[in-house]
Amino acid sequence: MKRISILGSTGSVGRQVLEVIADFPERFQVVGLSAGGNKDLLGEQILRFRPKVVSLSQKKYAEELKREFKDVEVVWGEEGAEAVASYSGADLVVAAIVGASGLKPTLSALRAGKNIALANKESLVMAGKILVREASQYGVNILPIDSEHSAIFQVLSCGKKEYVRRIILTASGGPLHRVSEEDLPYVTKEVALSHPTWNMGRKITIDSATLMNKGLEVIEAHWLFGIPPDKISVYIHPQSIVHSMVEYIDGSIIAQMSIPDMKIPIAYALSYPERIPTKAEGFISALGGGLTFEEVDHHRFPALGLAYEAIFQGGTMPAVMNAANEVAVEFFLNDRIKFTEIIDTVRWVMELHKTLSGDVLEEVLESSAWAREKAKSIIQR
Fold first, then answer.
1. What structural domains and CATH numbers belong to the chain?
2. pTM
3. How far is CA 189 from CA 147, 238, 329, 334, in A?
4. Mean pLDDT, to the nearest integer, of 176-188?
């Protein structure tokens, strides 16, 4: 029986994690749940999974849950999420909080000696150097949940890292893959949120539309697998069947393939180093018209180039890029800026930033906070 805490249990990934767990009650037990402000859904999850400790972002909601569930420890705020992350009864912590707010709870889980199933790529983007160092120090694993990084993680078992020529990340192209450059400024949020393949949260879906999501994944892959950024390539693969590939020095390219279903990499991360059966099927029929791969048009989608620039500069620059992007996406979703102004804002903030080493958490958090305020002031001006 593997005991699991979930950070971000009411989000898209968190809900799917619980669906996988529900299929295997003899293998997994939920001991901790952390959510934002969705008190009602968290209450339903408490009734079904009976965790020992839960957290909400706001104290008033937490106090309501306390009165309703006398046998559950209820905490709140950033400290509450960290308490769930470091709960002594957990064997594995699923880090599925969206955005920068997932960093400190993830770090708390590592320092408590917990293995991490990571769906929060922003944590590694912001502070990859710190998280990898802490994982090594405390002797714990960071297991990827993202389908692309799960694919790479599995394929790397086929050969030693020194035999890797490059990692090839695949991208669906998102909902705007065929939209002309002239039309991009007029894309509405409804169109940008209509992803053709994956059912994801709003923020990550917009990141997929700008291709910033793939840029974040390049940085995440660098830290997860210790591969230099110049050995990480990205190709558009609209079918989303090949989730990523590794090219070895002898010319062999090995891929991991499946239908686009997040429950497959989730199940692998939860059960690792074992595998468990899932209900996913239909691979042959999903091939349909075959598999295609295309070069990324960096002129139409400059976010990917910015991500490479950020990781090559290193230090606090990736955290600044991530923070500016989070703010800009929020403004776009609130109909305050045009679609193309998301990445314009990120670029301007990066140009204004004086990069620090990023060796300590305080530098990362301060730079991230600076970038948020700078992005807001640019947009409002």
1. 2-144 (3.40.50.720), 149-261+283-380 (1.10.1740.10)
2. 0.94
3. 25, 21, 10, 9
4. 93
